[in-house]
Design brief:
Shape: globular
CATH class: Alpha Beta
Structural class: alpha/beta
Radius of gyration: 18 Å
Mean pLDDT: 83
Number of strands: 10
Number of domains: 1
Number of helices: 8
Bound molecules: zinc ion
Strand order of the largest sheet: 4-5-6-7-8-9-10
Largest sheet: 7 strands, parallel
Strand content: 15-25%
CATH superfamily: Metal-dependent hydrolases
Distance between the termini: 25 Å
Low-confidence stretches: 1-16, 271-276, 279-289
Order of helices and strands: EEEEHEHEHEHHEHEHEH
Length: 289
C-alpha cells in the first residue's frame, strides 16, 4: 500500500487531509456498509473512520432489501432510520461529509432494482450491482445461483449468452434508474467490460473499481477506459477499519492507466466534461473540489 497524506480543500470548503494512493489523491469513499445491512460499524463509526483516513466524504451504502438471507435494509422504516443517523453524523462533526446511499440489487434482465425510484431519488448517491442469490426467497436464490454459477460451466455458448445478458441487465439498469455507480462489475457474474462501459458512458454512470473484490480487474478497467466512462475507487468496507482502504483499487486504476480526471473520488471528474457525477439527478449539489 502506498499512501501519503497532504493538504487539500474539502467539499465544504474547509482544509482537510487528503490521501494519496498510487499517485491518485482520493478524497472520498463512496461504498461502505454499516450494521444496517451486514457491516459491523455504525454510521458514526464509519464517519470517524473516514476522517481518520484523511477523507472529506464518505457514503453509507447498505444493501437493498433483496440481498440473500435477509441481510439488506429489510425493516420497515430502515431507510428513514439511516437518514436520521446520517443527518446526526453530519451534525456531530465537520471533518467529513456523510452521504446517504444504498447498494441496490439488480433483479432482472430489464435492470429492475429492489427499491422504488422514488426512494432512490431521495438518496445522495445510488450504487447498483449484481449479487447472485439476491431474490429474497429460497427458490429465487437457488435459481439465481444456478444461472450465475452452474449454467456458465455447462457450455461456452451458454456462458457467452449469459455474459451478453448480464451486460444488458446492467446497461438497462444504468439507463432506467438514477444510478451513480455500477459496483464491482464482473464479480461472480461475467460481463463484457467494453460494452458495459459504452453504456455507462452514455448513461452518465460510473463503473466501480472495488478495492475489496478486485473488480473491475486491470484488464477490464483498461478496456472500459477506452470509452471515456467515469470510474469510482471504493473500499466496500464492511467494518470501520476498512473505510478508506482504497490502495488495491488505486493500484488497478494505475495499472489500467486511468486519468485522475476520470475518477470520481479525486474530485476532478466532470470538471472539464458534461457529466456531473455523482448525483446527476439533482440529489446532490456538491462534489469534492
Ligand atoms: Zn456488492
Ligand atoms: Zn458492498
Amino acid at each position: 500500500m502506498s499512501a501519503a497524506a497532504g493538504c487539500g480543500p474539502t467539499s465544504a470548503g474547509k482544509t482537510s487531509v487528503m490521501t494519496s494512493f498510487h499517485g491518485y489523491e482520493l478524497l472520498a469513499d463512496y461504498h461502505t456498509h454499516t450494521i444496517h445491512s451486514h457491516g459491523t460499524g455504525t454510521v458514526a463509526e464509519n464517519a470517524r473512520a473516514a476522517a481518520a483516513a484523511g477523507l472529506s466524504e464518505v457514503a453509507v451504502t447498505d444493501h437493498g432489501p433483496a440481498l440473500a438471507a435477509g441481510m439488506g435494509l429489510r425493516e420497515p422504516g430502515a431507510v428513514e432510520h439511516v437518514r436520521r443517523m446520517v443527518e446526526q453524523a453530519n451534525l456531530d462533526q465537520d471533518q467529513v461529509r456523510v452521504l446517504q446511499g444504498v447498494e441496490a440489487n439488480v433483479m432482472d434482465r430489464g435492470g429492475a432494482l429492489d427499491l422504488p425510484d422514488k426512494v432512490l431519488r431521495r438518496m445522495d448517491i445510488v450504487l447498483a450491482g449484481f449479487h447472485p442469490a439476491s431474490r429474497g426467497t429460497v427458490t429465487g436464490e437457488l435459481r439465481a445461483l444456478w444461472r450465475s454459477h452452474v449454467v456458465p460451466r455447462l457450455s461456452w455458448r451458454l456462458a457467452a449468452r449469459q455474459r451478453v445478458e448480464n451486460t444488458k441487465s446492467l446497461s438497462e439498469c444504468a439507463y432506467r434508474h438514477a444510478v451513480d455507480i455500477l459496483v464491482h462489475p464482473g464479480l461472480r457474474v461475467a460481463i463484457d467490460p467494453l460494452e458495459l462501459a459504452r453504456a455507462a458512458a452514455k448513461a452518465g454512470t460510473a463503473l466501480e473499481i472495488n478495492s475489496a473484490h478486485g473488480h473491475l480487474t486491470p484488464a477490464s478497467a483498461r478496456a472500459a477506459a477506452r470509452t471515456g466512462c467515469f470510474f469510482a475507487i471504493n473500499s466496500d468496507a464492511h467494518s470501520p477499519v476498512k473505510v478508506g482502504d482504497l490502495a488495491a483499487g488505486a493500484r488497478i486504476a494505475s495499472l489500467a492507466r486511468i486519468a485522475p480526471e476520470r475518477i470520481l473520488n479525486t474530485g476532478l471528474a466532470g470538471r472539464s466534461g458534461a457529466v456531473p457525477l455523482p448525483g446527476r439527478h439533482g440529489r446532490r449539489t456538491q462534489r469534492p473540489s
